[in-house]
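Dock NDP; give full complex structure.
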Amino acid sequence: MAPESRHWINNEFVESDAKETITLHSPYDESVVGTVPVADEQVVDSAVAAARKAFETGPWPTFTAAQRAQCLLKFADLIQTKADEIAQIEAESIGQPVAFAKMIVGACVATYRYYAGWTDKVAGESYKEEDGTYRIVQYEPFGVCAGIAAWNATALYLGWKMAPALAAGNTFVFKSSEKAPFTPLIVAELYKEAGFPPGVVNFVSGGGSTGQLLSAHMDIDKISFTGSGITGRKVQDAAAKSNLKKVTLELGGKSPAVVFEDANIENAISQNSQMFLMNTSQVCAATSRVFVQKSIADKFIEALKGAFKGAEGAFQNPKEPTTMLGPLADKLQYDRVMSFIQSGKSESGAELLVGGDKIEGQKGFFVQPTIFLNPKEDAKIYREEIFGPVLNIKTFETEEEAIKLANDTAYGLASAVYTASVSRALRVASKIRAGTVGVNAVAFPSAITPFGGYKQSGYGRELGKAGIMAYLQEKTISINMAV
Ligand code: NDP
């Protein structure tokens, strides 16, 4: 049966006479997964109008914090029951292994539960009367919010963007990537079942043109974007040129991992191989530049090479429950990664240690896990985000040199430090210019702590208390005590 493909507006699936449609093919066997309509201006306008009406006059603004929490908790329970269905469709659409896709659903559930707890925790402030005036600060939802997501973890973005926005009392219009449009439509009816009134949650499908319509819309108050820096700039530009809607940008990275000579090598190897290759390294926080101290470099590099070679067998049919690694998301992504590998071979000055080709004997867009040693400082593979299983390694001698290398990037999303010394870990962590630092492990985002980028990895934060504050604005009320 073809997956549900209609837009979800006002708690109903709506037919649209779309002039344009998008057909998805499996990156594993190129079979047709389904077709979605592209939301045009009329569809986007009607989704935004539904969200506006729900925010202004629907029952939603009268919901107590406890009622909003109840909706979020119920939805968390309900989406869990769809984990298998979601995992299947993500495996078909972007080649994400079902086991990994279910973990993503689990993270989405955790995010809804976490933000259910926040609905009644954001207090305001009051100031002692001064000069005859009593002052109160209260936090209010923006109104209509929108989310535009990357394709690598759609269920995660349903959590990271929508759970805090809804907990804060906003209404929402969400656009997933054209590469992964089905998960929101699988769960759409669950929002209704969980008690969210009509218009509070709306899903539109489409590509860049739909994203552009949302970014430029005059009646959206805030937009949260996850994707590449190039598109993020377009979103910000459209927001500035339209109604100056508030913008949160979660962009890409070229994150460093620094391995010191006193590190637990076995752990550093598994974090920089198994964990790095997770989701076929299509992970914004992947630590794709590894710096290893010279004294242990030979041993570390030999072992990492072995781990990358050994991982090749783990790339299998993403629909099999035991599969750990899948193909790249589609032909475009495959061509992009292969062109980086080509440039690594021909113009980076680096030594290709392992990989560097497609995986033979497998249908689908599979690429060998690849390591380049000592690329030139201005090499494309060293500077630009690849979003695929390609790692760069360089060596260093001193801590200062390691920090300099780690920070020598336009990005600042994530990082990792491997060492047995707590003081060194803290010293280095405080000097790395990135939104997260993992010590002896990659920093896996958690619902309870903020996630987001320094420098060109974006601004604003999702998750944690910062995640809900990003969907609230301060209002000062001053009271003339003389009257
Ligand atoms: P893109 O920037 O290509 O697309 C992101 C989203 O923007 C998609 O929904 C896309 O639609 C939409 N879009 C495209 N053009 C426009 C436009 N002109 N205006 C508004 N929206 C538009 O990124 P990818 O989807 O390829 O995702 C990979 C990128 O996302 C990487 O750089 C990665 O690092 C980053 N990322 C960041 C994360 C973070 O939390 N910091 C997490 C995960 C990924 P469509 O796809 O349908 O064309």
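Observed: The pocket of NDP is lined by residues 148-152, 175, 177-179, 207-208, 211-212, 215, 226-228, 231, 234-235, 250-253, 284, 385, 387, 413, 453, 458 (CB under 6 Å).
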